[in-house]
Amino acid sequence: MNLSILATALIVLYVVASIGYVYRWRGRARYPSFSHYLRRSWPLLAPLNCLLYLATCGYARRPVMDAAYLSGIAILRERWAQIRDEAFALHLASESDATRTRHPAGRYDLAFRTFRKPGWKTFYLKWYGKPHRSARRLCPESVRLLEQVPGIRAAMFSVLPAGDGLSLHADPLACSLRYHLGLETPNSDRCFINVDGTQLSWRDGEDFVVDSTYPHYARNGSGELRLILVCEVDRPMNIIGRAFSALYRVAARAMAEPNTPEDRRDWSGWLSTALASWRAIARKLKQPRGSAGVMLQLSFDAAIVVSAFLLAYSAVASMDGAALAAVP
User: Fold this and answer.
1) 195 lies in which domain range?
2) How far apart are CA 65 and CA 208, in angstroms?
3) N or C: which end of the chain has fewer CB within 10 A?
4) Residue 325 counted as domain residue
5) CA-to-CA distance for 63 and 162, rounded, in angstroms?
6) What 3-state class would DSSP assign to 236?
7) 3 state SS for 287-309
8) Is residue 151 within 8 Å of residue 127, measured between CB atoms?
9) 3-class DSSP state for residue 266?
10) Distance set, CA 290 to CA 77, 282, 285, 287, 295 (Å)
11) 265-271: long-range contacts at Cβ-Cβ below 8 A with a sequence spacing of 24 or more?
């Protein structure tokens, strides 16, 4: 058998096995169906994420953790009220609507594409890079405090209105865990996040860490809004995992979204606009006849899968050719 074909077959087998593991055996929570998993998770990233799961330290292989292991986190715990004041002032000024209103051409927040979020609002402080210019201008103290805590790769304010929620989904990036710090919350068990079957309620000034690559959802059944600080923090891993994660974060940086026009907009911004246009077409098709929109989405997903397969095959074939050329 041709070496490139054998290697490609092994890669495909690993991809299928990793997708099956994440869907059927990882954790306790399950999606209602495989099609729901395909739409509400990131199956194409499962092979990469599984490598990071293997490299994760034993104490971090769980859906929920105490935040005490994070170096320097006491800075945020002690100064949470100052962060709360800036975040709440921002909310009252409606600046946090910036990432939902978008520019006239429309935007699509790629990192949070997998769940319904009708009233959910965010304001990015940083995203796997330097702080946003809008964040430095509007929330200087929060940015200053965040920069004192090593291991924080991204941060944002998140608002969940009363009576709203986020549907069951999983996030894409296994290179990080997610830190939550309550700022202005209902302080009620009716406002919660459920991660792999474990339910947590937000409280003012209290924090926790979750692995958001597990299935999770959120509800705010109280009569008040929920305002929190959310940070992407380093996943505890061995040296191999940390090296691989550093490369993974380069891809994560491409998912950055601006708050306002003053924030840096790179090629990912143009991709975001293109995806927004595609999504608008799919929604229009789904209105009169649901099957057309579904077929369009499935065709798009299938194109991604085929492209990934062809890319893997081409890479292996190139290495096979180079090896044969090196033989005298």
Assistant:
1) 60-266
2) 6
3) C
4) no
5) 26
6) coil
7) CCCHHHHHHHHHHHHHHHHHHHH
8) no
9) coil
10) 48, 10, 7, 6, 9
11) 268/110, 269/107, 271/110
Joined tokens for residue 73: 């986190």
Question: Residue 65 corresponds to which tokens in the numbers above?
Answer: 């953790």
Residue 34 lies in a domain: no
- pTM, entire model: 0.82
Evaluate whether residue 208 is within a structural domain: yes
Q: Within a domain: residue 14?
A: no
* Position 29, amino acid: A
Q: What is the rounded CA–CA span in Å between residue 324 and residue 322?
A: 5
Question: What is the structure's pLDDT at 289?
Answer: 45
Record the tokens describing residue 109, joined without a space.
């927040």
Indicate the SS3 state at residue 161.
coil
Q: Strand 176-184 and strand 226-234: pairing?
A: antiparallel
Q: Does residue 205 come out as left (phi exceeding 0), alpha (psi in the -120 to 50 range) or beta?
A: left
Q: Which residues of 12-47 are buried (b: 16+ CB within 10 A; e: fewer)?
A: eeebeebbeebbeebbebbbeeeebbbbbbbbebbb
User: Where residue 198 sits, what CATH number does that domain have?
Assistant: 2.60.120.330
Q: Which amino acid is at 23?
A: Y
Output the six-digit token pair for 177. 């865990």
Length of the chain in terms of residues written: 328
Kindly give the residue spans of alpha helices, DSSP state H, lying in the chain.
3-20, 34-40, 46-55, 74-78, 80-92, 98-101, 133-138, 140-146, 239-253, 267-286, 290-326
Q: How far apart are CA 218 and CA 311, in angstroms?
A: 37
Residue 4: both structure tokens together? 């490139």
What residue has token string 């979204």?
257
Q: Domain count for the chain, please give it.
A: 1
* pLDDT, block means (10 residues), the chain with 328 residues: 77 92 95 89 89 96 96 97 96 65 44 62 92 95 97 95 94 93 98 98 98 96 96 96 89 82 68 56 54 57 58 58 57
